[in-house]
């Protein structure tokens, strides 16, 4: 088993499949009355969050607690970081406290890689800058497999701001490993061809959502990062949602069995209309539940065995 | 653990027909001891406990036309030796439809050795329901208990040395039915 989960590229087919299978067993346990398992008793998991997050932090916290690990939540606000403490000094503090795993979210791409060289425990990337978010990719893959029964050969469109999306990067890497075919869709300013090629040569790129939809098994809508709107990647929000937003008319172009995914948080009315987000094809709520199972699987497989 | 030389000192303890007879006998004993297996659930411990539980249920059905619910109970997440080995893959936990609350649960495993697997199974059971009683059925008891645990139904007692290993093969998983004793007999 690998020691750290810094990138979806850390996972080969066998390891990724093991994580998804383990997540399946964890999901089965979620249905019972006593959800707590004694597996990681005595282990300490630190959630080190330099960026705001609700679902990912809560999801990791729930996952660690269900496995009986001790959880320490650290957010940059209200800590010594606001007094100017560096990532390295914070890491050394955590090291001294004996953290068995550090779950890190940071605005700087590559922060988990640096952290891994400073601490003895496992490092789990919970989103670093515009780089990667591997546990999101795992829960997405798990959701696709649960709904559609397989991953090999699936055709997946990832739509929107690929340029800034760590979710998209991790998904392309993991889905390619698992044998799915990914098409990146969005305005040319947000879907650079060189990024697609660098991630995986098999990745296709399209600027026309309507022509892509009829061939897809999965459509994953990315959040339009409104905080970057002023950089004029597209002329206006209305134009974006007219060309790349998923509404009911577009959803009908999908094959009967296809599912609609979104990593959240959503801009309802922007990249996805409320009718689509709340339709039976949407897996958005399932993704949140699956997130806990997938993260339990990762924590168990990284921490459960011999160190 | 079997050493590379182990095969030179291996001995077949139960062949195919012996194994079938032993399973038949346990099925009869269960019927006898539980007065017709009413309110009883068989839970196999993965990996080889699961097909054994299914066989027992099939035999009980053949003898008395009684359907005993069968399920599986994975104990990996409850083991006390997780940190001594590389991470283990999880097995399946599948409880039969009616659950286990208020029923007599018979845990089924292939080999009873230290008793630690059964301890873990009792912990796991505690988290999935409250059976009225719990019994244990094993194909082989090889001794060397480290915990105060005993089986209610034993297919075969095999005196062993700690350094030896007992290998149960089942048709469903290994392609043949056999129990083998291997290892150094120094």
Structural notes for this entry:
The complex is a heterodimer of chains A (307) and B (186). Chain A has helices at residues 13-29, 55-66, 87-97, 111-116, 134-148, 166-177, 193-199, 209-212, 237-244, 248-251, 274-277, 284-303, and strands at residues 44-49, 70-75, 101-106, 122-128, 155-159, 181-185, 204-206, 218-221, 259-261. With 307 residues, chain A is an alpha/beta fold. In chain A, the strands form two sheets. Chain A has a five-stranded parallel sheet with strand order 7-6-5-8-9, covered by helices on one side. The mean pLDDT of chain A is 93. Chain B has one domain: Rossmann fold (3-Layer(aba) Sandwich), CATH 3.40.50.2020. Chain B is built from four helices and eight strands, in the order βαβαββαβββαβ. Chain B has a five-stranded parallel sheet with strand order 3-2-4-5-6, with helices on both faces. A three-stranded antiparallel sheet of chain B has the order 1-8-7. In chain B, helix 1 (16-33) crosses helix 2. Chain B is globular and about 45 Å long. Chain A binds chain B through residues 1, 18, 21-22, 25-26, 28-29, 32-34, 36-39, 67, 300-302, 304-307, and chain B through 74, 77-78, 82-93, 123, 126-129. Chain A: One of its GO terms (cellular component) is cytosol. Chain A: Residues 153-302 form the Aspartate/ornithine carbamoyltransferase Asp/Orn-binding domain. Chain A: Pathway: Pyrimidine metabolism; UMP biosynthesis via de novo pathway; (S)-dihydroorotate from bicarbonate: step 2/3. Chain A: Pfam families: OTCace, OTCace_N. Chain A: Residues 3-145 form the Aspartate/ornithine carbamoyltransferase carbamoyl-P binding domain.
């Amino acid at each position: 088993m690998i020691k750290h989960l810094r990138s979806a590229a850390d996972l080969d087919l066998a390891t990724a499949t093991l994580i998804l299978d383990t997540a399946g067993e964890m999901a089965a346990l979620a249905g019972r009355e006593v959800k707590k398992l004694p597996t990681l008793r005595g282990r300490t998991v630190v959630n080190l969050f330099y960026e705001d997050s609700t679902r990912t932090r809560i999801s990791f916290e729930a996952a660690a607690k269900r496995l009986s690990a001790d959880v320490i939540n650290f957010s940059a606000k209200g800590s010594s970081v606001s007094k100017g403490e560096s990532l390295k000094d914070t890491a050394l503090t955590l090291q001294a406290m004996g953290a068995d795993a550090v779950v890190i979210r940071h605005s700087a791409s590559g922060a988990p890689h640096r952290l891994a060289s400073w601490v003895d425990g496992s490092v789990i990337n919970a989103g670093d800058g515009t780089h990667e978010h591997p546990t999101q990719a795992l829960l997405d893959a798990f959701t696709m497999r649960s709904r559609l029964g397989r991953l090999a050969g699936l055709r997946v469109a990832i739509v929107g701001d690929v340029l800034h999306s760590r979710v998209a990067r991790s998904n392309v890497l993991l889905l390619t490993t698992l044998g799915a075919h990914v098409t990146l869709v969005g305005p040319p300013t947000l879907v650079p061809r060189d990024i697609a090629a660098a991630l995986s040569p098999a990745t296709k790129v399209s600027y026309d959502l309507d022509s892509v939809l009829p061939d897809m098994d999965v459509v994953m809508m990315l959040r339009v990062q409104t905080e970057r709107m002023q950089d004029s990647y597209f002329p206006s929000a209305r134009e974006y949602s007219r060309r790349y937003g998923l509404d009911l008319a577009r959803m009908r172009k999908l094959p009967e069995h296809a599912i609609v995914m979104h990593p959240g948080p959503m801009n309802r009315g922007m990249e996805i209309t409320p009718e689509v987000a709340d339709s039976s094809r949407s897996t958005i709520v399932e993704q949140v539940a699956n997130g806990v199972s997938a993260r339990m699987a990762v924590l168990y497989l990284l921490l459960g065995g011999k160190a | 653990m079997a050493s590379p030389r182990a095969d030179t000192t291996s001995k077949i303890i139960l062949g195919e027909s012996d194994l079938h007879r032993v399973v038949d006998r346990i099925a009869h004993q269960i019927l006898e001891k539980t007065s017709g297996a009413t309110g009883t659930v068989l839970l196999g411990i993965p990996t080889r406990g699961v097909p054994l539980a299914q066989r027992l249920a099939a035999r009980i059905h053949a003898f008395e036309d009684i359907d005993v619910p069968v399920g599986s109970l994975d104990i990996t997440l409850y083991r006390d030796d997780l940190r001594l080995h590389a991470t283990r893959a999880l097995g399946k936990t599948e409880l039969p439809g009616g659950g286990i609350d208020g029923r007599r649960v018979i845990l089924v495993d292939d080999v009873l050795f230290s008793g630690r697997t059964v301890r873990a199974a009792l912990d796991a059971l505690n988290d999935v329901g409250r059976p009225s009683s719990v019994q244990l059925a094993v194909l082989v008891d090889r001794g060397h208990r480290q915990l105060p645990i005993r089986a209610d139904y034993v297919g075969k007692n095999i005196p062993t040395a700690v350094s030896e290993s007992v290998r149960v093969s089942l048709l469903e998983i290994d392609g043949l039915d056999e129990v083998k004793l291997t290892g150094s007999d120094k």
